[in-house]
Amino acid sequence: MSAEQAVAEPQGTAADEQIVAALRAGDERTFRELFERSYPMMKRVARGYVASDAVAEEIVQDTWMAIVTGIERFEGRAALGTWMFSILTNQAKSHGARERRAVPFASIAPADVEEPAVDSDRFQKDDEAWPGHWATPPRPWQKPERRLLSLEARDQLKEALAQLPERQRLIVVLRDVEGLSAEEVCDLLELSQENQRVLLHRGRSRLRAFLEEYLEGPNA
Amino acid sequence: MHDPGPRHDGHLAGDFSVTADEVTCQQFVELVTDYFEGSLPPRTLSEVEEHLVMCDWCVTYLEQMQATVGSLRNLGDQSSREPPELLLAALRANRAGGP
Question: pLDDT tens, A160-177?
Fold first, then answer.
């Protein structure tokens, strides 16, 4: 079982039941396995809501405390992964809200939809020769693999990811950073396939635009 | 203004006619995720593929989206850790409180 499946088992009711029973019985081995496998993903999701690794670690710990102490009340109405994930995002949101009170200039997340992938100024207008075709086309990135692997680029990308609206960020983290399938993400977040794709598209498009600026900017 | 790609030169010279079915670059950039996800309806898929044959700029755009997704994959760190004693104690309490 992969790390992803450990938390995001789509309809593994039998596996869910086993895990729930093990946690209720205080089975340390099952707990350790689940904790260790899900830790990087949980921390990364939490990190999207708060400004430091330390607080993200605290959120993961609080989430697990809520899972361990609340497993007795888990009724199996949602998949176990969905239940755990909702605890995680609730914990992360309340920590994030506390942080935002301390940081008055935190940006307000813009709407998820109705934002073009590329600024409309970059395409020809209706009265031009080729309406809807590039006016300012993208320029090929030079050696993107190497440049995007640099520590600085990774930090910049993490920062850009943190700036995405919440749902876009969650989906990009789960799909592209963690490698979950579309089905797993829809299940975890209780989203339709179509909404999942729209949010993934908005998030990825913004990050592409960010990298374009970064790779072509004055520091390139 | 950037140097237009060679295929686009032909394109701009009117090598093929614009039809209502043609995908524009502006439409393409909104379809690229559905294209990656394999969720385009067959007709749109063939229009997108025809567009990519014609348009080097949109191929560049597609490659940039792929590079973006690839760089996100590299953000993953596999560091895990042991559960803290506090949690193990809470887990053991389940055992004690169980049937």
Answer: 998 898 889 999 999 999
Neighbours of B92 (CB within 10 A): 14
Residue type at A10?
Answer: P
> Is residue A153 within 8 Å of residue A147, measured between CB atoms?
yes
Q: Is A200 exposed, middle or buried (0-12, 13-18, 19+ CB in 10 A)?
A: buried
| Phi/psi of residue A123, nearest 5 degrees | -115, 155
Please give the full DSSP string across A7-37, using - where no structure is assigned.
HH-SS-HHHHHHHHHHHHTT-HHHHHHHHHH
Of A51, A56, A27, nearest to A41 by C-alpha is A56
- The Cα–Cα gap between A8 and A10 comes to 6
Tell me the H-state helices in chain A.
3-8, 13-24, 28-47, 53-70, 80-102, 144-148, 151-163, 166-172, 182-189, 193-216
Neighbours of A53 (CB within 10 A): 11
Per residue in A148-164, pLDDT (tens digit) is: 888 888 888 988 998 89
- On whether ipTM exceeds 0.85, the answer is no
CB interface of B with A, residues 8-67, below 8 Å: 11-12, 18, 24-27, 29-30, 32-34, 37, 39, 55, 57-58, 60-61, 63-65, 67
**A134 three-class SS:** strand
- Whether residue B64 contacts residue B84, with contact meaning beta carbons closer than 8 Å, is answered with no
A158 touches chain B (CB under 8 A): yes
**Cα torsion for A183, A185, A187, A193, to the nearest 10°?**
-60
